[in-house]
Design a protein that fits this description.
This protein has helices spanning 26-42, 46-58, 66-90, 92-111, 116-144, 148-179, 184-187, 189-203, 217-240, 245-265, 281-301, 303-311, 316-322, 324-345, 347-365, 374-401, 409-443, 450-482. By secondary structure, it is mainly alpha-helical. It folds into two domains: 23-215 and 272-489, MFS general substrate transporter like domains (Growth Hormone, Chain: A); 216-271. The longest helix is centred in the last third of the chain and has 35 residues, at 409-443.
Length: 500
């Protein structure tokens, strides 16, 4: 019989404020949380389709365009843990409001940019406020839904939003770029932020500040600079290669700083990331699965976009519409996973199954050719991939935040988002490098006719799909070994705010 996931949790002291934002408006609170999370997730991809137009408008080089995407990852990934702890410190309603207002304002700054530098700065600042929004939203979800069945449904919806956000970003980016202007890919955040802000002001109760929460300054400096160095190093590899001093130097520095951070967390009185959060076996496996999923899913979100537009000649809008079935499959399987499968079989069965399905879908995509049809060749593997993605995302988000004490909910949620962001950053850098190498190898010794160049692009995409599938397959094996067998057990003495 498995050890209860909530064993490290205990009821908080009587004088410690515990957030209970649920109540009769809890489903409206979920809507607010989902909108905020969707805005943060889709902003990682919505600009991708707009990049060619932005490049032509602002006149920056092809070598620099990656920084429009990477700047967001740098701000987001390096500050997530701090954002989670700030939410614990000042109260999650206040943190959500600050995050929404800041995200909207920096979106306007980036959208109105008259130069490349302003655009990159605006994107980096978006990431900073996204680092406050994402863990706050997940922490609110954790503390809002306390009933077993309701929480399963809520996490299913949240997981579907998180898993489908990238595809929604591609679709929305295509529509806005084709029918309005690339700048609206950033201005649209005013709509999302406005709706979520109104809902937060009306439906979220004011929560008292938890004075027991302190900011770990040494740990914050170590982890922020460490994560920044890791993300920057991976992004640098895409343009300068893995052997460049700017790549391995930052990666080495990031590794050292993260080691220092872990050491500090065992020494300071108020750690930024209490290591007790990571000691639970199922939670650690869920964190790892989220890292692997984020690293591998770029095989679809990034390279399939290039394939549809460059190989099949799809417009931005048609490209976005083409990923809708994957979004639908993700939403269906995410809801099914948390509502039926995970409570009955546990994450040991559901997560490896989802990872295996995603790997199968990616391997299926390697068969695509320059004349492949959408219905016969693109749609089936997309649906299979989406089904697998939904099983993993929703189950892991629920498992990773289960049993965390209320005072640690924000930073515990930030850990999940950090795994996603760092995994995604490493994945896009690694897959881009492998794909570029495959294209170069294919072109070696050949006359670069249009047909040969088109085939080299297919080779690069196929390489990316293959390695993404390897990530997912390895994750299925590792998670199958790490997760405890059976459905999660309950701890009757656990704090009610986090009771499953």
């Amino acid at each position: 019989m498995s050890t209860p996931l909530t064993r490290e949790s205990s009821p908080p002291p009587a004088d410690q404020a515990v957030e209970r934002p649920g109540g009769r408006h809890r489903w409206l609170v979920l809507a607010v949380i989902a909108i905020a999370q969707l805005m943060v997730v889709l902003d990682a991809t919505i600009v991708n389709i707009a990049l060619p137009s932005a490049q032509a408008d602002l006149g920056f080089s092809a070598d620099n365009r990656q920084w429009v995407v990477t700047a967001y990852s740098l701000g987001f990934g390096s500050l997530l843990l701090l954002g989670g702890r700030i939410a614990d410190l000042i109260g999650r309603k206040k943190a959500l409001i600050i995050g929404l207002v800041g995200f909207a304002g920096t979106s306007v700054l980036a959208g109105a940019a008259g130069s490349f530098g302003v655009l990159v700065a605006g994107r980096a600042l978006q990431g900073v406020f996204g680092a406050l929004l994402a863990p706050t939203a997940l922490a609110l979800l954790t503390t809002t839904f306390t009933d077993v069945k309701e929480r399963a449904k809520a996490f299913g919806i949240y997981g579907a939003v998180a898993g489908a956000g990238g595809g929604v970003g591609l679709l929305l980016g295509g529509l806005l770029t084709e029918h309005l202007d690339w700048r609206w890919c950033l201005y649209v955040n005013l709509v999302f932020a406005g709706v979520a802000l109104a809902g937060a002001l009306v439906f979220l109760p004011v929560q008292a500040r938890d004075r027991s929460v302190k900011i770990d300054v040494p740990g914050t400096v170590a982890v922020t600079t460490g994560l920044f160095a890791l993300v920057y190093g991976c992004a640098n590899a895409e343009t300068e290669g893995w052997n460049a001093a700017g790549t391995w130097g930052f990666l080495a520095a990031g590794t050292v700083l993260m080691t220092v951070f872990v050491w500090l967390q065992t020494r300071v009185r108020n750690p930024l990331l209490p290591l007790r959060i990571l000691r639970d076996r199922d939670r650690g496996a869920a964190f790892l699965a989220m890292f692997i999923t984020a690293a591998g899913m770029f095989g679809v979100n990034l390279f399939l976009t290039y394939y549809l537009q460059q190989s099949l000649g799809y417009s931005p809008v048609r490209t976005g519409l083409s990923v809708l079935p994957m979004i639908g499959a993700t939403m269906v399987s995410a809801t099914l996973a948390t509502g039926m499968l995970a409570p009955r079989f546990g994450p040991k069965t559901v997560v490896p199954l989802g990872l295996a399905l995603a790997a199968a879908g990616l391997l299926w995509l390697t068969a695509l050719e320059t004349d492949s049809g959408y219905a016969a060749h693109v749609l089936p593997p997309l649906v299979v991939f989406g089904l697998g993605l939904g099983l993993v995302m929703s189950t892991c988000m629920s498992t990773a935040t289960k049993g965390v004490a209320p005072a640690d909910a924000g930073v515990g949620s930030a850990g999940v988002n950090t795994m996603q962001q760092i995994g995604g950053s490493i994945g896009v850098a690694l897959l881009s490098t492998l794909a570029a190498g495959a294209a170069t190898d294919f072109l070696s010794g050949k006359t670069p006719t249009p047909e040969v160049v088109a085939q080299s692009a297919l080779e690069s995409y196929s390489t990316a799909y293959t390695w993404s599938a390897v990530f997912f397959a390895a994750g299925a094996i590792i998670c199958g070994l790490l997760f405890r067998p059976g459905a999660p057990q309950q701890d009757a003495d656990a704090a009610p705010a986090v009771h499953m």
